[in-house]
Design a protein that fits this description.
There is one protein chain. This protein is mainly α. 70% of the residues lie in helices and 7% in strands. The chain contains 4 helices and 2 strands; from the N terminus they run H-E-E-H-H-H. It is globular. It starts with a helix and ends with a helix.
Length: 122
């Protein structure tokens, strides 16, 4: 289940990035994270729904598909709030990147900020 939630959040992040870059017009929280769009959020949720469906269909784990979809949706929304919260803390501190370990990616915290909110919710 831990691997599922990690895959879910990372896939939703990737889907949000792709949808946001290609179709994003409406900023979600421009003062906190100017790159995030509502179109990206919808894209992330659609990607999460696809991952949830695929997992329910092919994983050798007994699940109720509807429950998994509902839980996955809530988890992805929590991950977005986790990401925005970390971005807010960085903006308030005047920090662009939390480390230089992964150049161009905002640092290690940007790789796990969504998970820190999503895993407890899951």
């Amino acid at each position: 289940w831990l691997l599922y939630v990690m895959l879910l959040v990372w896939a939703a992040d990737s889907g949000a990035y792709i949808f946001g870059r290609t179709m994003g017009k409406h900023k979600m929280a421009p003062k906190v994270s100017p790159g995030k769009t509502l179109e990206g959020l919808v894209g992330g949720l659609l990607t999460a729904a696809l991952i949830s469906w695929l997992f329910g269909k092919f994983a050798p784990v007994p699940t109720m598909q509807e429950h998994l979809l509902l839980i996955s949706t809530v988890v992805v929304i929590a991950s977005v709030f986790g990401d925005l919260t970390e971005s807010m803390f960085k903006r308030e501190s005047g920090i662009k990147d939390s480390s230089q370990l992964i150049p161009g990616h905002g640092g290690v915290l940007d790789r796990v900020d969504s998970l820190t909110a999503a895993i407890p919710v899951f």
